[in-house]
Design a protein that fits this description.
The chain contains 10 helices and no strands. The protein is an all-alpha fold. The protein has 2 domains: 86 residues, Rna Polymerase Sigma Factor, Chain: A (Orthogonal Bundle); 81 residues, Arc Repressor Mutant, subunit A (Orthogonal Bundle), CATH 1.10.10. Helix 7 packs across helix 10. The longest helix has 29 residues. 22% of the residues are buried.
Length: 183
């Protein structure tokens, strides 16, 4: 349950309460933006836009959901808006050798922990699956809360989770199968 006094201070537009909001949720908002495929600078910019939008609309926050769910929802929509508007820069049109991931699975498995390999595989899933997986497993949000954040039906969230698990199972099984051939 949110601290009601703190929420009232936010609604009264107290700057110290807003600073506390940013401090409490800046990592979660950044993670939301970064998970959707924004680079660090873009994620920081969109996170700033998220907090600005939250500041403007905090008086209308009705507390039907948690404040964190409300912020995740704002961040999700701001990031998706950014991605829709994003145009490729001239530099991104040219081949960048550093941007090509190392596909040598044996080297990846030698140097990375099991969790790193799994989360790397999650990042490589098609959108919106990584976002849903991270909300569900890392952030421990329930299906209803994810649905509220993404503004989609609960059954769609369940389907995204199911398909993401299937795809992860395939990719991780093939990765570990390849590694066992190298031994």
């Amino acid at each position: 349950m949110e601290d009601l006094t703190w929420l009232e201070r936010l609604r009264a537009r107290e700057h110290s309460a807003f600073a506390e909001l940013v401090q409490r949720y800046q990592q979660q908002v950044f993670l939301c933006c970064f998970t959707l495929g924004l680079d660090a600078h873009q994620a920081e910019d969109v996170a700033g836009e998220t907090f600005l939008a939250a500041w403007k609309s905090i008086p209308s926050f009705n507390a039907k959901s948690k404040l964190s769910t409300w912020l995740w929802s704002i961040a999700y929509h701001k990031a998706m808006d950014f991605l829709r508007k994003k145009r490729p820069s001239p530099e991104s049109i040219y081949y960048n050798e550093q941007a090509v991931p190392d596909t040598d699975s044996s080297r990846l498995l030698e140097t990375a922990s099991r969790d790193e390999v799994i989360w790397s595989a999650v990042k490589n899933l098609p959108q919106p699956w990584p976002f849903v997986v991270i909300l569900f497993y890392r952030e421990e949000k329930g299906v209803a809360e994810i649905a509220a954040i993404m503004d989609i039906p609960k059954n769609t969230v369940k389907m995204h989770l199911y398909r993401a698990r299937q795809k992860l199972k395939e990719s991780l099984n093939s990765l570990w199968k390849d590694e066992s051939k190298c031994v």
